[in-house]
Specification:
single chain, Beta-galactosidase, Chain A, domain 5, 6-stranded antiparallel β-sheet, 5-stranded antiparallel β-sheet, 3 helices, beta-galactosidase activity, GH-type_carb-bd, glycosidase
Length: 175
């Protein structure tokens, strides 16, 4: 029998991908386009799903030169993404999106050393904007997040590009 203590357990849901290991459990939502649960050692660390964000507080210079007015489209765009495409990679190999009925081919005892989920998100700017966010998880529970935005001609200046982690308690450090 294979030693699964150092492996990542994959749970294929109808609308989610679950990843579980020693002391952690993560859930990614296909419908929301991001991570919706980050549980470490029994404590839930997410209050909302993780999504790209494009807005920041305005500075005095921003107010003076009209930046807030010109770039205000980004404030709303970041709140309502459309999930355009989802790709799941298990052990660096792309698999068919494991939603019903495809997910029925998997058991509840699937173990791997790594998994990656990529979300292509579309934003309702004019013209439309796409951002690809990938989450790569290893058996230790380490998460590598990668955000790709290639820019788009004709959209206003981008105030900020980041990932929003809304947590139920204040975080004091990240590693």
């Amino acid at each position: 029998m294979e030693n699964t203590a150092t492996k990542l357990r994959v749970i294929y849901g109808d609308c989610t991908l679950g990843l579980k290991g020693q002391g952690f459990h993560y859930i990614f939502s296909y419908t929301r386009g991001g991570m919706e649960s980050l549980n470490k050692n029994g404590k839930e660390w997410l209050y909302r799903e993780t999504l790209p964000t494009f807005w920041r507080a305005l500075t005095d210079n921003d107010r003076g030169n009209g930046f807030g007015y010109r770039s205000s489209v980004w404030l709303g765009a970041g709140k309502y993404p459309k999930v355009k495409q989802i790709q799941v990679r298990i052990e660096d190999a792309a698999i068919e999106l494991p939603i019903a009925p495809v997910n029925n081919q998997y058991s509840n005892t699937e173990y791997v050393s790594s998994a990656e989920i990529l979300f292509t998100l579309e934003y309702n700017t004019v013209p439309k904007t796409e951002v690809v966010v990938s989450y790569r998880i290893n058996a230790l529970g380490e998460i590598k997040v990668n955000v790709v935005y290639h820019g788009q001609k004709g959209v206003p200046e981008l105030p900020l590009l980041g990932i929003r982690f809304i947590m139920p308690t204040q975080a004091t450090s990240f590693t």
